């Protein structure tokens, strides 16, 4: 187990890197917005990135309240339990990201299985109606 001091240092590094990545993303989004305002179009990848960055910036507003109000950062874990998508994507840890991807994959697999079952049922009904 890590000591309390080491966990605090790790958490501070995590937030430093998160804000740094968010700043870089914001600069990229500003350039994309400049291109849009001057009549250029964005590729599909750039458009998705631009939307993700804008969503992150809007998520940052309630997150900043926790940082600005004194001693409110101690309530941040409680708020994150209640609202798990409150943090911008740049603050996501590897484990949280893997967990989210696994959850999305499970949902996709369940949907694919449901669609396969539905198609099989329709095929059986069509076969019974013809035969």
TrEMBL record:
GO BP terms, alphabetized: calcium ion transport; intracellular monoatomic cation homeostasis
Entry membrane topology: Single-pass membrane protein
Location in the cell: Mitochondrion inner membrane
Domain Letm1 RBD positions: 42-127
Pfam families noted in UniProt: LETM1_RBD
Location, primary (coarse class): mitochondrion
Molecular function terms, GO-annotated: metal ion binding; ribosome binding
TM regions (residue ranges): 57-80
A GO cellular-component term linked to this record: mitochondrial inner membrane
Record flagged with keyword Cell membrane: no
The keyword Ribosomal protein belongs to this UniProt entry's keyword annotation: no
Key words of the record: Membrane, Mitochondrion, Mitochondrion inner membrane, Transmembrane, Transmembrane helix
This protein's name: LETM1 protein
Organism per entry: Psophia crepitans (common trumpeter)
